[in-house]
Amino acid sequence: MPKGYIIALVTVTDPEAYKLYQQAGGPVFASHGAKFLVRGGTQTTVEGDMRPRSVILEFPSLQAATDCYNSPEYQAAIALRINASAADICIIEGWEG
């Protein structure tokens, strides 16, 4: 079964408020078996347009990623993020090839 991923491209507009989102979201991700592959860090855009912060979370399956995103606990964390950032987020199935 392929893994699932949440990929988020983020512009943080209120760093202090964004920290509250991170504190709320971290335990939710862990409870769904997520592992951070990318969490901020230095990035260089070589083509196209990107946001300044990239996050990639790996989940045991696409269903686990979807369940995490849709969980009441993560929806509460999103409420903290909405006014602290702008984001483009997708849930994507991994490739087993």
Describe this structure in words.
The chain is an alpha+beta fold and 97 residues long. 38% of the residues lie in helices and 31% in strands. The protein has three helices and four strands; from the N terminus they run E-H-E-E-H-H-E. It has helices at residues 15-31, 62-70, 72-82; strands spanning 4-12, 35-39, 53-59, 85-93. Strands 2-3-1-4 form a four-stranded antiparallel sheet, with helices on one face. The chain starts with a strand and ends with a strand. The relative contact order is 0.36.
Keywords for this structure?
alpha+beta; 4-stranded antiparallel beta sheet; 97 residues; globular
The biggest beta sheet reads:
4 strands, antiparallel
**How far do the termini sit from each other?**
11 Å
How do the strands line up in the largest sheet? 2-3-1-4
Oligomer: single chain
Secondary-structure topology with pairs:
Blueprint: E1 4-12, H1 15-31, E2 35-39, E3 53-59, H2 62-70, H3 72-82, E4 85-93
Antiparallel strand pairs: 1-3, 1-4, 2-3
Helix pairs in contact: 1-3
Short description:
This protein has 97 residues and is of the alpha+beta class. It is built from 3 helices and 4 strands; from the N terminus they run E-H-E-E-H-H-E. A 4-stranded antiparallel beta sheet has the order 2-3-1-4, covered by helices on one side.
